[in-house]
Amino acid sequence: MKKILIIAKKEFLDMFRDKRTIMRMILIPLLAFPVIIYLVSSLQASQSEKEATKELVVGYYLNDQSSAMIDRMDTTAHFTFVPYIDTTSLSAAVSSDSINLGIWFSSSFDQNYEAREQGEYGIFYRSADLEEYDRFQELIKVQEEYLVQERLAQNELPSAYIQPLLLNTQGGNKSTMTETIAKYAGGILPYIFMAFCFMGCMLPAIDLFAGEKERGTIETLLVTPVNRVHILVGKMIVVTAFGLLSATVALGGLIGSLYLMEIDPQLNAIIAMVITPKLVVMLYLLLIPTAIFFAGIMIPVSVYSRSFKEAQSILTPLNMAVIIPTLVGFLPGIELDYTTAWIPIVNVVLATKAMIAGNPEIGPIIITFASLIFLSAIAVFISFKQFGKEGNVLR
Fold first, then answer.
1. By CB distance 3.0 to 4.6 Å, which of 26, 155, 293, 294 could disulfide with 376?
2. Nearest CA to 247 among 280, 271, 296?
């Protein structure tokens, strides 16, 4: 055990001396989410403000009907209404982008409304500019509510006349806040853990085997009075530790940025309620064998490769094999059960969601953990076999 720790210490020192390690596994995960959240929130706020204050030009064709509805809408800020003589010219103006939208009224609009029937109207718009259409629809809804209240007042009827049912929502929702979060956003946490854990394992796995072969230092290590198994275990400890470190730093960067930027106090309260010490411990119980599994996949490839570049070209596409199963966490209706608990990576995502919700079944959780241990053991065995072949190590 002492020899393994000496090998691990030596590899840790070498990795931390490498600036690429600091950048890729510590600084990038730590800064990635604050930068992304800041840019996205700033862009979203700027774009929302821009869209809300954008002046929309709306053409209208009255078709010899009353202009009362247009006159009311024309008092709304950031809307300008322009008359047209027919629907043909109005439609052409919208199609050519001369105006943003167009509204026309049927020839019997006023007559139908006065007869307590439906007054027909139409809207010309471009589906490529749905934000403009949605803004105009909100304006139309206000007018529709105005006309409904006017018609009720004319007939001396209360507002409840057209709303015969009243839903009492008090105490109706039986899901807890954590269950709701787990269902709709619970996939984010395991996605971060898995993606950054994989990327964190990749660089050390390549550098400690293919990189050393390329630099010609692997032979020096092999002639020392240390068993080859001890060398492999020491290096594997480093690969696994850096995977866990990268995932931890990424999660810390995400949570820290949400707190520091004060995007939403309620969101911060929810985070504090969900990310508990118990949850973190349970996550790491799942993540440690997962990181060992990742290391066990990467090390044989790195041992077989002739150079750092060759190993990187083989392992980089494997990112998709991790990311795609992780996306299952965002799909509704898929839960952790006795079937999904056997599917690698997917079981970790679903187990995390169940733990966040606070209602995990002990059976599938045990199967998930056992399957991860089994897979990591197989991956370690394959690494031993590959590292034990002289032709691979000195390739």
1. 293
2. 280
- Torsion angle (degrees, nearest 10) of CA 88, 90, 95, 98: 140
* Residue boundaries of the structural domains of the chain: 2-35+178-393, 55-159
d(CA 141, CA 121): 13
Contact 217, 208 (CB under 8 A): no
Give the separation between CA 295 and CA 236, rounded to whole angstroms: 7
In the CATH hierarchy, which top-level class contains the domain 55-159?
alpha beta
Question: Which two structure tokens, joined as six digits, stand for 130?
Answer: 């749905």
* 291-317: pLDDT as tens digits: 888 888 888 888 888 778 888 888 888
With H, G, I as helix, E, B as strand and everything else as coil, classify residue 298. Answer: helix
* Residue 392 DSSP SS3: helix
3-state secondary structure of 373: helix
Give the integer Cα–Cα distance in Å for 189 and 76: 44
Are 60 and 82 within 8 A, CB to CB? yes
| Bridge partners of residue 101, in order along the sequence | 58
